[in-house]
Amino acid sequence: MAEVVQLFATCLGDLVFPDAVADAESLLRDAGFRVELPARQVCCGQPAYNAGHHAAARRVARTFARAFSRSAPVILPSGSCTTMVTHYLPALLGVEPYEVWELSAFLDRAGIELPRRNEGRTVAYHDSCHMLRELKVAEQPRRLLEQTGATLVQLPRADLCCGFGGTFSVRQPEISLSLADDKLGGASGAGAEALVTADPGCLMHLDGRVRKVGGVPVVHLATALARGIGGGA
């Protein structure tokens, strides 16, 4: 019998990037897992938690605890939400940690084989702050992209934030947009055909900037792996 995994769509995945969630589900199914999407899932509470509203975050985080069981791993196509559920939600609710995996880390550990949907394509990969600094997930998404045939080019100052930073993009819009432009300019200058990221927050911020001023397409990692960089976000 296939191993069961639980997929947490996350707020941005559900409301803004449902195709990326569907691509994440497709990748897991194609890898031989039986995927469950608990119907009662809502939000991990990260927006309120990062803004310092811990009581509100606790109320929202309880929806996660009610929706997900401990009988199967929870997989997230979002580095920032994975960080919240892994590092902060257990203490916030006073519960034992769940088995939680960011999507690329889980797929890489599982040793899946991916079709070469990006053969001959050149891409840059953006490390989200949470994935790079708190989850220490950096090589896994790059290995998976290379497995699909993509040639990766290095972004200048790749460790810098894209400018989203949750409420930072609202409170400091000028700096936020400058960081986004720097990231997009770096991808274009490196010769990338697309900029890939594994975090919906970064994707929303960077893609919004592309729609405003132009730049290389920004694609969620799940889509790049499941359908290629031409598959859309």
**Number of domains as seen in the coordinates:** 2
General form: globular
The CATH topology label of the largest domain is: Rossmann fold
Largest sheet descriptor: 4 strands, parallel
Share of helical residues: 40-55%
SSE topology string: EHHEHHEHEHEHHEHHEHEH
Radius of gyration: 17 Å
Structural class by sheet pairing and helices: alpha/beta
Calculate the terminal CA-CA distance, rounded to whole Å.
32 Å
Unreliable spans are: none
Beta-strand proportion: 5-15%
Residue-averaged pLDDT, rounded?
94
Q: What's the total count of β strands?
A: 8
The CATH level-2 architecture of the largest domain is identified as: 3-Layer(aba) Sandwich
CATH class of the largest domain: Alpha Beta
Major beta sheet, strand line-up: 2-1-3-4
* Count of helical regions: 12
Describe the secondary-structure layout:
Blueprint lengths: L3 E4 L3 H5 L2 H13 L3 E3 L9 H5 L3 H14 L6 E3 L2 H15 L6 E3 H8 L11 E5 L2 H7 L3 H9 L3 E3 L14 H4 L1 H17 L4 E4 L2 H14 L4 E3 H6 L7
Parallel strand pairs: 1-2, 1-3, 3-4, 5-6, 5-7, 7-8
Descriptive report:
Helix 5 (79-93) packs across helix 7. The protein folds into two domains: 4-108; 117-231, Rossmann fold (3-Layer(aba) Sandwich). The protein has twelve helices and eight strands. The protein has helices spanning 11-15, 18-30, 46-50, 54-67, 79-93, 103-110, 129-135, 139-147, 168-171, 173-189, 200-213, 221-226, and strands at residues 4-7, 34-36, 74-76, 100-102, 122-126, 151-153, 194-197, 218-220. The strands form two sheets. It has a four-stranded parallel beta sheet with strand order 2-1-3-4, sandwiched between helices.
